[in-house]
Amino acid sequence: MPQDTKRINGPELTRSYRIHCKANAPKPFDERLQEALGKDGKRKDGRRLQESRKYYAKIGVVSTAKGSAYVELGNTKVIVSVFDPREIPKQNKFCELGELFCDLKFSPFASAVRKTHQTDARERSMAAALTSALNPSVCRHLFPNLQIDVFANVLEDDGSALAVAITAAGLALGDACVPMFDIVTAATAGVLGDRVIMDPTAEEEALCLAGHTEENHGLVMLAKLPTLDQVPEIWQYGFVDVELLWDTCKQLNAACGDLVPVVQHLLVSKVKTHLQELELESDEEEEAEQDKEEGAAEASTQGSGEDR
Predict the structure, then answer these.
(1) Over the range 257-286, which residues count as b (16 or more CB within 10 Å of their CB) and which as e?
(2) Rounded Cα–Cα distance for residues 50 and 41 (Å)
(3) Under 8 Å CB-to-CB from 70, ≥6 apart: which residues?
(4) pTM assigned to the model
(5) Which end of the chain has less neighbouring CB within 10 Å, N or C?
(6) What is the mean pLDDT of each successive set of 10 residues along the chain, which is 308 residues long?
(7) What does the angle CA 96 – CA 98 – CA 103 come to, to the nearest 5 degrees?
């Protein structure tokens, strides 16, 4: 890859120096579990196991894109851009349904370990899950033989990155005025033994993925179309039995429903702002037309007086 000659370039694979400090030395699994969850059932940030972090969302943040959204969930930060439809590249046959091209990338500084610019297996898997979650929500029959590009960039990864990316992508599609059947929301839960941890942080995700001593361990992500009451995508990593997976999906379904008012408020506020701008433009045009008519009337009266 081309290097930036303006600055000193470090190696592509680097680690933070904090990893080598004694305070951050690797600890046993049981000790990390006790520090993360505690004895009273509360986590490090004071949340209960079934409690989620607070959201912050904003749309229209990328000026060069047709639609965009920026979403924060705790320290997890994701920005998504949607661009105008274009012809499907290398497509010889006519396609009745349009396509969604979704790309999900982690910034090199998103996690403690610096990531390379090349797409790895995790990013490809999450991009496929993002595509599967968005496809049922978009009216693809309205733009045949065309493709809509959706680019998601994880600026900081502190857990639940895929769920935040799906929610932000749904907001960006709405901001781009893409015809949709329904909005999309998503939530993530970690499973460790008989515990279901809603909205896990990066540390809690690592515990759930490393909990091989427990019978059930892993991550579950669920995306939902709330108005249609449909689930377009379930993404699971690890081992979870059927009964616990069903209970986890019920909790994730309720968590996705809690996000609906936030998404609706953002989209409705954008429509109201756009309507107010149109009203102001129409008022300005009417005032300009009135000024022109008054000026023409004054000119005609002055001309008639000079003729007399």
Answers:
(1) eebeeebeebeeebeeeeeeeeeeeeeeee
(2) 10
(3) 57, 58, 59, 61, 77, 78, 79, 80, 168
(4) 0.82
(5) C
(6) 58 67 70 73 83 91 92 93 88 84 90 77 91 93 90 91 94 92 93 88 86 79 92 90 92 92 90 86 80 73 58
(7) 150
